[in-house]
Amino acid sequence: FHLAGIRLAPKETLKIPVLFMPAEMKIYKAVVVIHVMRENGENWPYEVTAESNTDLNRNVTVAENGETQGILWIYPINGTPEAPQQKSVVIRCEARQRVEQREELLLIGVMPGASALPDAGNSAVINTEESSNTPEVTDGSFATVEFLYEMQYQSDEIKSQLESLVGMQLVQKEWDTESRIVTLIFNVVFAPCKPMRNEATLVIQCTAGGLWKFPLVFIATEPEVDDVINIEAVGLNKESIVGFKLTSQTR
Prior knowledge:
The protein has 251 residues and is mainly beta. It has 2 helices and 11 strands, in the order E-E-H-E-E-E-E-E-H-E-E-E-E.
């Protein structure tokens, strides 16, 4: 869109609306350019020459006499579409036990071809240090499409509780070229040490564009009874004592 003739008083703030409504799961790029000129049509006396700073040359418009006619602010915009909220995946295990199960996650609308991820600092970029893998789909024209994934937690407390109890690894990927649906098969390991119910989110990003979030619910049920302790009374109003050992699994 193009806005012209907007007057701004000194120190006044101008809000510029940006609407993003993606039609496909791919990266969209745009640039917002703000061009400011004096209301009276006069130029700034500062002259921009070939020897001037490169950034300065790029961010001004110059009149015929070499004076500065206008100032430019250029804002690149990277749009990453996000899929609708997915259905929760529940992983259930008895406390002090270990469960290992496979989960099939469907990514709908993946686009072929590859493009670079947005620049670092963009909130849509997955933290590759925490990503377990960067697998490639090796199916014809989709060979360069990669997926990054990581677990995100609602708080640091939940992260500290789940991080050492949960393992997730991508073991298989399938591509349906007609429906453009990618199936990622993850192996999930959950080994809780006590009863709990916590939530996390598996975030998957495609380098060709698109973000999918899968809510995960980890439920640890009560463990089985370790043993039954029988105490026989030696008589009325007399104490009977039974001893048993408890071993801590941590320091």
